[in-house]
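Human: Here is a favour to ask of a fellow structure person. Comparing notes only helps if you start from a blank page. Give me a protein, with the fold worked out from its sequence. Please set it down just below, with no commentary around it:

Assistant:
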Amino acid sequence: MNTSIASPTLASTFWQDQAAGPAARVPGQAGAPATGAPVGEGAALVPGDATAAQAAPPGSNMMLFIMMGVFAFMIISMMMNSRKQRKQTQQLLASLSRGDTVQTAAGIIGVIGEVRDDVVVLKIDESTHTKMKVTKASVVRVIKQAADKAGASDVVEAEAA
């Protein structure tokens, strides 16, 4: 008596398939040769395993939607923050006037002597009358506004990125 085989029907079917050879095997069943052509719906092209193409677990689609939502939220928040910083920078550059003390991106601090379209002339040193031309875009903050502006003697910390 053979105790290693649980079902004599399965064992006899297996041995019959092995004895008949590869030509008798039905394509799409386990152990059948892979021909490269799909046998039926959901058929796997993996040799020896027709059940490889199984459905995804039920919770995986929900996790995908959650991850896509978080990613979309991050993208939208970054776009809004970028738009806000750009608007603040434009307001800062539009409000530059003669007599403002400003700091450039290079760390140079000077008093605005003249404002042109895209260029600002800074007075760096009063004793030697040193002047420097810089682009408006290089001004990153206004340290002190000119006294001739209404109530503008306090320090304005308008940071630009």
Summary: The CA atoms of residues 115 and 121 lie 6 Å apart.
